[in-house]
Amino acid sequence: MPTKVVIGAQWGDEGKGKIIDILAANADVVVRSSGGNNAGHTVEANGEQYKLHLVPSGILYPDKLCIIGNGVVVDPKALLEELDMFASRGIDTKNMIIDARAHMIMPYHIELDALSESSRGKSDIGTTKRGIGPCYMDKAERSGIRMHEFVDETVFRRRFRENMEIKNAVITKIYGGQELKYEDYIDEYVSYAQRLAPYMADATAVLYKEIKKGKEVLFEGAQGTLLDLDLGTYPYVTSSHPISGGVCVGTGIGPTMIDECIGVVKAYTTRVGKGPFPTELFDETGEYIRNKGFEFGATTGRARRTGWFDAVIVDYAVRTSSLNSIALNKVDTLSDIPKLKICVGYEINGKVITDFPYSLDTLASCTPVYEEMEGWSGDLTSVTSYDGLPVNAKRYISRIEELCHVRVSMVGVGPNRSQNLIR
Ligand code: GDP
Ligand code: IMO
Ligand code: MG
User: Fold this and answer.
1) Is the Cβ atom of 9 under 6 angstroms away from ligand 2?
2) H helix or E strand, kind and range, residue 67
3) Where are the extended beta strands (E) located within 110-180?
4) 269-271 and 305-307 as β-strands: parallel, antiparallel, unpaired?
5) pTM recorded for the entire structure
6) How far is the CA of 39 from the centre of ligand 2 (A)?
7) If you take atom 13 of ligand 2, which residue's CA is the nearest one?
8) 309-357 pLDDT, tens per residue?
């Protein structure tokens, strides 16, 4: 059963899309298991750049089955825009299915995301405002609309009207917002449902059969470990489970069917949105990394916060997702920085800890403990083998392996499919 889970090991945007696209060359099925169009996965191939939000990053190969699993929250409008984008660029998306159990993001979810963020004032989470949290809230509250109800027009009309009434009470009475009108949306959403209906399937059954047949399956993570609802920097997290454990719940297969877990990691750290970030840089090095690494969100375009590599975080991801290896991206971005720092622990009350703290108050009072390493210079984007990397880059990678207790199996030296060194 050659099945591989690929997850983000930091705060998202580690380059998961690129790694999935590379590994998909030898896979049969690519599955998204969690999150929604809060994700933005960039793939560069054949001289083109694609930004994927809901469609799995295997779609650029015509023969791969792409699955949107039951754990994904689907904004039908956003998905159709993405499918139209692919169609206009000559990419066939017929080889995609959506699990009938997936929950649908409705206009009131998007409205409530914006209203709850603004009501939080300065302590807002910095969400992508795509309605992700409110949709997962309805799922947990057992009032959400699932794909199979969405495509049944009679059921959908009833459920949409009922839900909208309740949400309008919250929108107007709690937040003082403008109520949404059923009539303004219903025809539009019914037409989306008609277009998406052919994609619906019991994806859990399809996936199980593919795995049993010995097909190679890739599980494409979204977001990252520290955005996990349970294990991340709560409450500055998303509302799903980006760790490897989330894959089983989000696709309907059991843990004994997973062969390998790969973490995708950046050679430094970034975060978009609010919340603590111990190794954040506020100086010209941070700015240099942001500009050179083009650290601007693939979904919202927001500037990403940048900082030194934090081994405490990646070690935590190795533990919480049982990672077998990591793919280390963006090593090329760190070229020409004379001295690099790696965070090897956090100092708190005179003690150094290496287990990522569960409390944000503890995290806030931690001071990162750094180890300094010699940098390297020159453009790495045309390096074609691991041996061809500068010796200091190899030392940096080896130190990351020691500190995070994991093997680095791939090294990224550029955004393209071809700029990936296998070790
Ligand atoms: P994802 O959400 O994890 O798929 O990552 P994003 O696509 O949001 O952000 C990663 C960014 O880094 C994208 O712009 C990628 O094209 C780019 N990228 C990925 N790997 C590398 C790499 O090794 N070097 C460079 N320079 N860019 C990379
Ligand atoms: P990919 O898959 C980076 C962040 C948001 C915010 C928090 C909650 O591209 O790595 P949400 O809209 O999910 O309720 O926002 O989570 N966030 C991401 N940050 N990459 C992502 O996805 C993210 N998805 C959500 O910025 O801080
Ligand atoms: Mg992204």
Assistant:
1) no
2) strand 65-68
3) none
4) antiparallel
5) 0.97
6) 6
7) 238
8) 999 999 999 999 999 999 999 999 999 999 999 999 999 999 999 999 9
